[in-house]
């Protein structure tokens, strides 16, 4: 019998997962490890969310839902756009997905054909690149030089070299935390529209902006695909629940693909997520802790010799230049984990070319952990 293995599956692994596995191994052996490697909140989902899930379990049957999601959740999300951004979105344009990760899959399949050129910012979230590669799209990595985000000029320049079919960006971004200012976001959207380039805006780190307000790309038109999730601000990574806001002509294609690919997002998570918008008080407390951590690391990391490579506007990441300490951030991360007991992510995942000179620290943990991590790394560096 032949074993079939496609070229499509030959994508880069997440190197961060190797660090994670090593951290778990050390912990299992009794070592004390502070994890700043994983991009997920250390808090549970808000109480009202967990209570809603408990009630749904007690009620009994959890089944499939409409492919585009439960109407009350789609409506709650539409209301969120009115309340939070003062932008009108109809519930018909909202699709519920199995985390934003499924949203990328659906968007790429519904919007692009194999061989299409799609621009993304480097450094950036590695799954964009990997999903696109698996789908046969041509990933065009656009390196920010003048600004820590994609600008209208950079997009136009790349499009002049060879036409782009689409662009995808996150603001605030992973791994840099950089946010695109509102006026630049508007220029990006308008330039893309003029050049016939489709826009996908990953807004998963919205409500985790520390330097300014959230600006949804939807404020600048209804021809943009927005992808978002309950994973980050709402502390619901494991519930695998997210959403898309779609240009009207994309609603039916997304519905058709979702029917076959996922049937629907998990009903239990959908029922619970409806309550997430009612948990602002609890979630703002979590956010205020991130803000304190951000202050601590924003000061502490550069003093340790890890200057910030981007301004830490939002999300919960510090992306640092470690070139004064190493030319191999993967090896450096391994040693820092084993010798100092602090896990951080080497830049390679986010930037295959220059990532060896960078590391990402997640500050979604407790403030005591952040203090302890700075002390441990400081002692470790002094002892080297
Ligand atoms: C920029 C960005 N987009 C999307 C995701 C995927 O999140 P999820 O599938 O949990 O919604 C992540 C996760 O780290 C991320 O950093």
Plain-language structure description:
The protein has twelve helices and twelve strands. The longest helix has 25 residues, at 280-304. The chain is an alpha/beta fold. The radius of gyration is 21 Å and the shape is globular. The strands form three sheets. The chain has a seven-stranded mixed sheet with strand order 2-8-7-6-5-3-4, sandwiched between helices. Strands 9-12-11 form a three-stranded antiparallel sheet. Strands 1-10 form a two-stranded parallel ribbon. Helix 4 (99-111) packs across helix 5 and helix 4 (99-111) packs across helix 8. It has two domains: 15-45 and 281-383, 3-Layer(aba) Sandwich (Aspartate Aminotransferase, domain 2); 47-278, Aspartate Aminotransferase, domain 2 (3-Layer(aba) Sandwich). Helix 7 links the parallel strand 5 (166-170) and strand 6 (198-202). The chain binds pyridoxal-5'-phosphate. Residues 39, 99-101, 125, 170, 174, 202, 204, 229, 231, 237, 242 line the site of pyridoxal-5'-phosphate. Pyridoxal-5'-phosphate binds next to helix 4.
Question: Topology, please?
Answer:
Elements: H1 15-28, E1 34-35, H2 47-59, H3 71-85, E2 94-97, H4 99-111, E3 117-122, H5 126-134, E4 138-143, H6 152-161, E5 166-170, H7 182-195, E6 198-202, E7 225-229, E8 242-245, H8 248-261, H9 267-273, H10 280-304, E9 317-321, H11 329-340, E10 342-343, E11 345-346, E12 358-362, H12 367-383
Parallel strand pairs: 1-10, 3-4, 3-5, 5-6, 6-7
Antiparallel strand pairs: 2-8, 7-8, 9-12, 11-12
This protein binds pyridoxal-5'-phosphate.
Residues 39, 99-101, 125, 170, 174, 202, 204, 229, 231, 237, 242 line the site of pyridoxal-5'-phosphate.
């Amino acid at each position: 019998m032949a074993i079939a293995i496609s070229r499509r599956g030959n994508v880069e692994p997440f190197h961060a997962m190797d660090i994670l596995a090593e951290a778990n191994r050390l912990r299992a052996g009794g070592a004390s490890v502070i994890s700043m490697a994983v991009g997920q909140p250390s808090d549970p989902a808000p109480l009202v969310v967990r209570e809603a899930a408990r009630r749904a379990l007690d009620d009994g049957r959890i089944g499939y839902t409409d492919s585009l999601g439960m109407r009350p959740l789609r409506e709650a999300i539409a209301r969120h756009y009115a309340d939070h951004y003062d932008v009108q979105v109809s519930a018909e344009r909202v699709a519920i997905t199995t985390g934003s990760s499924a949203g990328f899959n659906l968007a790429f399949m519904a919007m692009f054909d194999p061989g299409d050129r799609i621009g993304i910012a480097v450094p950036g979230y590695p799954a964009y690149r990997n999903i696109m590669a698996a789908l046969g799209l041509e990933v065009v990595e656009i390196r920010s030089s003048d600004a820590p985000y994609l600008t209208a000029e950079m997009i136009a320049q790349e499009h002049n070299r060879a036409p782009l079919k689409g662009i995808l960006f996150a603001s605030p971004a992973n791994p840099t935390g950089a946010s695109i200012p509102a006026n630049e976001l508007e220029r990006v959207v308008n330039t893309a529209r003029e050049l016939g380039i489709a826009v996908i805006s990953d807004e998963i780190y919205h409500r985790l902006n520390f330097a300014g307000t959230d600006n949804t790309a939807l404020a600048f038109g209804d021809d943009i695909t927005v992808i978002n999730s309950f994973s980050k601000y709402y502390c619901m990574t494991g519930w695998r629940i997210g959403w898309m806001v779609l240009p009207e002509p994309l609603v039916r294609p997304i519905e058709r693909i979702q029917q076959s690919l996922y049937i629907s997002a998990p009903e239990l998570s959908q029922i619970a997520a409806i309550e997430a918008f009612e948990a602002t008080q609890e979630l703002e407390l979590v956010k205020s802790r991130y803000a304190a951590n951000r202050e601590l690391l924003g000061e502490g990391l550069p003093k340790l010799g890890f200057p910030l490579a981007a301004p830490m506007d939002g999300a919960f990441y510090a992306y640092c230049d470690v070139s004064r300490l190493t030319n191999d951030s993967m090896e450096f991360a391994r040693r820092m984990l084993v010798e100092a007991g602090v896990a951080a992510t080497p830049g390679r995942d986010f930037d295959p070319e220059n990532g060896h000179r960078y590391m990402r620290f997640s500050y979604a943990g407790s403030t005591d952990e952040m203090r302890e991590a700075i002390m441990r790394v400081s002692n470790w560096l002094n002892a080297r």
